[in-house]
Amino acid sequence: MSEEIRVWGIHTHNDNLFLKENIIAIGWNEIGDLSKISPDREAFKKKYIKTYPDDKKMKVATSAGMLYRFAHEVQIGDYIVFPSKINREINIGTVESEYIYDPDTDSYVQQRKVKWLKHLPRTVFRRGVV
Fold first, then answer.
1. The domain spanning residue 93 has which CATH number?
2. For the chain, what is the domain count?
3. Which distant-in-sequence residues (6+ apart) come within 8 Å of 102 by Cβ?
């Protein structure tokens, strides 16, 4: 029986937060604590619509799905790939915590702790099909 290896990609506008605080995080601060929402996709869609009633239907599905996956599908031990804009490196880490809601932060209240394993220059990765 083989264990599934999962890799998640994430982007941010605040590279320093991720790299210096050893976290990954997403926004949607107005939606509040994701652990208070019933752990199913429909509940996340309903909460999203209630919080952001003017968003288009496609954005609701996409955003609610991201929030659900961050809170319930990302697991401790999963790999994270984060391309940094400030240093042009690809950062690779592993998830070290369950979902955390941090209302005391200015942004990115939805968080998980991460251990950064490698910081590789983008030039290590080649473009094109292998």
1. 3.10.590
2. 1
3. 109, 111
Mapping DSSP to helix (H, G, I), strand (E, B) and coil, where does residue 25 land? strand
Query: Quick check: is 77 in a domain?
Result: yes
Given this model, what pLDDT does residue 1 score? 46
Q: What is 84-99 written as a DSSP string?
A: -SSS-EEEEEEE-SS-
Range of the domain at 76: 7-123
What is the rounded average pLDDT of the residues 113-126?
A: 90
Q: Which helix (H) or strand (E) holds 50?
A: helix 41-51
pLDDT per residue over 34-66, tens digit each? 999 999 999 999 999 999 999 999 999 999 999
Instruction: Specify the 3-state DSSP secondary structure of 55.
Output: coil
Residue 130 lies in a domain: no
Q: Give how far Cα 77 sits from Cα of 4, 18, 33, 69, Å.
A: 11, 17, 23, 15
